[in-house]
Amino acid sequence: MAAVLGQFMEFHLVHGTNVKLDPSRTQATRVESFANGVCFSKDPLSPGEIFLVEIEEKELGWCGHLRIGLTAHDPRTLGTVPEYSLPDLVDMGDSWVFAITRNHNKVIEDEGGEAEGGEQPNVGDEAENKPKTFFTDTHLYIENMSIPRDKLVGRSRPGRYSHILDDLYKTNALPPTARRSRIGVVYVPKGQEYADMHIIINGEDMGASAKKIPTNKPLYAVVDVFAATKSVRIVQVEYGFASLQTLCRKTIQKHIILRMALDWLELPELLKHYCKYE
């Protein structure tokens, strides 16, 4: 994995007219209506680098949910941010966006097992490319790319039944559009000139939702805070060695079933908060 991975992710200052960013530029909220919620990553993504968001708020009464994808358009060059990612941004070309639904987000391959675009996935080769180590389950593998699983799965609000809800997120039993779900986009190179776009929902790869994307231009993440999705927050993913803070959190969480039990521990309040919500 390239050393550049692990940069601090932010939303671009160029965004839809109904979007408000928090001071850290890691949370985007649609303040009115149901449209004009298109956001972009501040920087282009690197191959295998995931742009991951968590659904913070929902708004009842609208049809449709979060949309996510990639664009080769530098946000700074857009005269006007399109009202919708689908179809407006996609119709401009060089953009690939996937609409998240309550169900059926898995990409269906063509009959005969051939994936869209004419490529035949070789399951045996893919399995051989996966590192065979004790820590294999700590990463999600897509082709020859690996993404740490630690932050990919959503977590419920701390409470009496939070451990039960957390298991539902882990097994993707809850709708992908539920509050606290984590949804990400990543592209995987297919040769020197093209890549496939994959959508990750609560740690599960939905497959290649767009194929043969040209990689001759930088690719920015697109997040459309659309309709029933009111607010999203960027989740920072750590590549390489985990930080000391993360290792401490994992050790504490391993010995606790109910997250509310953290309140009883003699720990700094900031560390308690970090363990509860991440």
Automatic annotation (TrEMBL):
One of its GO terms (molecular function) is ubiquitin protein ligase activity. Residues 243-278 form the SOCS box domain. SMART domains: NEUZ (SM00588), SOCS_box (SM00969). This is Neuralized-like protein 2. CDD domains: SPRY_NHR_like. Residues 108-130 are annotated as: Disordered. It comes from Cyprinus carpio (Common carp). InterPro entries: B30.2/SPRY_sf, Neuralized, NHR_dom, SOCS_box, SOCS_box-like_dom_sf. PROSITE patterns: NHR (PS51065), SOCS (PS50225). GO terms for biological process: intracellular signal transduction. Pathway: Protein modification; protein ubiquitination. It comes from the Eukaryota.
